[in-house]
Description:
The protein is of the alpha+beta class and 207 residues long. It is built from nine helices and four strands; from the N terminus they run βαβαββααααααα. It has helices at residues 13-25, 39-42, 63-73, 84-118, 125-145, 158-167, 174-179, 184-194, 197-201, and strands at 5-8, 30-33, 52-55, 58-61. The protein is globular and about 50 Å long. The protein starts with a strand and ends in a 6-residue tail after the last helix.
Amino acid sequence: MSKPVLISIPVSNLGRSVQMLLEEKGVDYEFEVASPHSDAVNAIHPLGKVPAFRHGDLTLCESEAMARYIDKVFDGPKFFPEDPTLCAKVDQWVSLHNTAFDTSMIRQYVLGYVLPKMAGKEPNREQIDASLPIVKKHLAVLEGAVEGGFLVGDSLTYADLANFPTLAYLPDFPESAEMLKEFPNVVAYIDAIGARESAKKTQPRRG
């Protein structure tokens, strides 16, 4: 069968989660750069969002669906544990990320800076300021959860790969960088996972 193809943009936190999984499992894959709502993405994702994924005749949208497929089909360490209790915990943290942490930290906070900048405008202060109490609340949840180094058990799982690319943006923005001083476990977690080869190879260009 042909190589799997991940279709995304390098700055997508969700795309990076899937790409880090491919790297961690040692999968030979292709990365196709395509913007949201481009023809390549629209052909797979009904809402035109990245990432999108293709493997032979299979196409998938939604990062968790891609991750589960990759983890089952390809050799290498398992990132959704066989143990049902541990796997349920992974699902819990992936869901919390996708429904809460991604919304507050990326869609509301980070994009409050990034989207206006792309349009040549000033940051959206109303949006940014409204997001800050929620970001802090979510970081407090994660502070206790990552005390042992990983979100689930004593090794890297997809729970970590789902959450890390989002958290990795926070040191780059002023309010969240200051906020992180209150959450040393989260900082240590970002630093530790950021030192992995999968994180280095998928690091989006700054600026």
